[in-house]
Amino acid sequence: MAKRIDISGLSAFYGSHKAIDDISMTVEPRSVTAFIGPSGCGKSTFLRTLNRMHEVTPGGRVEGKVLLDDENLYGSNVDPVTVRRTVGMVFQRPNPFPTMSIFDNVAAGLRLNGSYRKNALADIVEKSLRGANLWNEVKDRLNKPGSGLSGGQQQRLCIARAIAVEPDVLLMDEPCSALDPISTLAIEDLIGELKERFTIVIVTHNMQQAARVSDRTAFFNLAAVGMPGKLIEIDETERIFSNPSVQATEDYISGRFG
Amino acid sequence: MASTTQTEIPPAPPGRRTRAKSTGRVGDKIFLGLSRGSGILLLVIMASIAAFLTYRAAIAISDDEGNFLTTFDWNPAGDPPVFGIAVLLFGTVVSSIIAMVIAVPIAVGIALFISHYAPRKLAGAIAYVIDLLAAVPSIVYGIWGALVLVPYLEGLNLWLDQFFGWTYIFEKTEIGVARSLFTVGILLAIMILPIVTSVSREVFLQVPRMNEEAALALGATRWEVIRLSVLPFGRSGVISASMLGLGRALGETMAVATVLSPNFLISLHVLNPGGGTFAQNIAAKFGEADAFGRDALIASGLVLFVLTLLVNGAARLIIARRKEYSGANA
Fold first, then answer.
1. Which of A85, A97, A158 sits opposite B228 (nearest CB)?
2. ipTM reported for the complex, 2 dp
3. Distance (Å) from the alpha carbon of B218 to chain A's nearest alpha carbon
4. Inter-chain contact B324–A148, Cβ cutoff 8 Å?
5. Residue B252 · residue B221 · CB < 8 Å
6. Which residues from B are below 8 Å from A158, CB to CB?
7. pLDDT at site B16
């Protein structure tokens, strides 16, 4: 079930360093929201607060609220492990489990949850691989190690692994930055299909990509190196790229930045 | 790093400092000669050891009136001389297996605790204490084993005999203090714990962050992260670590010689006193052996040498076979 994310007053810290400052926004369900901004502006950090991955970094700490359809992910009785089972994540570099077969990679999340019927496992794996547009390429070698695939295939395998557990939200942290243009296109097409079923948030350095895949775009910036990153504005992607309301956004998009 | 670099480049002679660039090539030549020389020297030393062992062993084995591999006796001074390695091989292998069975799981557990569970300060302290265990001389372990471990293990032996006697292995059929292969195995386990722990810990610390995050992002608990990412990545490292430990256990001399009360019987009742190992037998007999007796002991040493080589070779094979799954190509 795709869910809405309501973020209010969110700040994240590395030890005493404040990485992002007081961010509030709403992420609509069944849509793609892109985060853009210069390096170090905290967009990846912000993404990682949405599934409580930020706090696994030593010294990582978060203040503020993230509501997933009215349930606060940072509530005092919320287990971060449960949060990560409902908010999936795809990383910058493809990271399939190297010792596992393709099949086991996709099944890994289901096996962790334990919430599946044994005879349904193969069906779910096939459905997830089809969902990630990878099935036709790997159906004859499901028992081969996932690390033997190409980079683009590995990344789609990671997407299949993430969607196999039917998460509410899918977070993508620069999912194409380690891929060639053809694999990138495959992933972008896939994102377009996945948004029918999931709430998708994608961090990207590629502004054309943000313009191509996203419905809404958020622009982050930081005043200076060492200062916390801030949300400058979030709006319909079309508007951000044609007529943004803040001058800094236009400067960044048109390349007149810094 | 800086110090290595300095030793690799010999300092230019003081009078020629202005021509530093051209002396660099001389330095290369000197260094090449030194490193090539060390490499060749190592091969020469290994070859001479092997030749020495084989030559002396051949003398002894050709005059052995018993079967060198199957005789349950060690009497090279007798007439005719009769000696064989069966008991020593058995004792060496059995005590080492016991040591591995005890030490490897504990060492992996400690290594995981240090690398993934303990707060940083505590982890450092534990790692230090474990490394300290490696600094204790083996004769000290031997004395401690004989004076403390042996009497304390009698209770455990009784208990094992009572409740696990049906396994045959833990049946104690002979009365006597616990100077047995089992006690030796426990002592060896303590002695190999540091090396297995510290090598495993290093490997576990090298697990790429992104492999662990893959598991975390799927909603894995800390243990599940270890099961999905850390252990598969560390497997070959743990095997190497275990083999290093096994090498030490196979060759351990003084501690075993101090604890064991040797005899020349083979028994799978590991709680019974008796048995022997290669290194222990050599240490016990070398002092009073005549020239031929020493050759006989050298022959047994050669078998230990081969055994250790085989173990290392097997470990390399296991690691090589798992290479495509090692995570290095992720």
1. A97
2. 0.88
3. 6
4. yes
5. no
6. 214
7. 47
Q: How many CB pairs under 8 A join A and B?
A: 82
pLDDT for A177-221, tens place per residue? 888 888 899 899 999 999 999 999 999 998 999 999 999 999 999
Contacts of residue B196, defined as CB under 8 A and 6 or more positions apart, other chains included, come to: B103, B104, B107, B108, B111, B238, B241, B242, B244, B245
Q: Which long-range contacts (CB under 8 A, 24 or more apart) does B129-134 make?
A: B130/B193, B130/B194, B130/B197, B130/B198, B131/B194, B131/B198, B132/B194, B133/B190, B133/B191, B133/B193, B133/B194, B134/B194, B134/B195, B134/B198
Distance to chain A for B121, nearest Cα, Å:
14
Label residue B41 exposed, middle or buried (CB < 10 Å: 0-12, 13-18, 19+). Answer: exposed
Instruction: Show residues of chain A in contact with B218, CB under 8 Å.
Output: 84-85, 88, 108-109, 112, 161-162, 165
Length of chain A measured in residues: 258
CA distance A9 to chain B (A): 24
Please list the residues that pair with A200 across neighbouring strands. A32, A170
Tell me the pLDDT tens digit for each residue of B293-329. 999 999 999 999 999 989 888 888 877 776 555 544 4
Domain range A5-253, CATH class: alpha beta
Please report residues of A whose CB lies closer than 8 A to that of B328: 98
* Whole-angstrom distance, CA of residue B104 vs CA of residue B110: 10
Query: Residue A117: which residues within 8 A CB-CB, separation 6 or more?
Result: none
What would the pLDDT profile of B176-194 be if each residue is shown by its tens digit? 888 999 999 999 999 999 9
Q: Which CATH architecture has domain B82-325?
A: Orthogonal Bundle (1.10)
pTM summary value: 0.82
Which distant-in-sequence residues (6+ apart) come within 8 Å of A90 by Cβ? A155, A158, A159, A162, A170, A171, A172, A173, A175
Nearest CA in chain B to A109: B218
Phi/psi zone of residue A130: left (φ > 0), alpha (ψ -120 to 50 degrees), beta?
A: alpha
Identify the three-state secondary structure at position B173. coil
Three-point CA angle A181, A203, A222, nearest 5°: 125
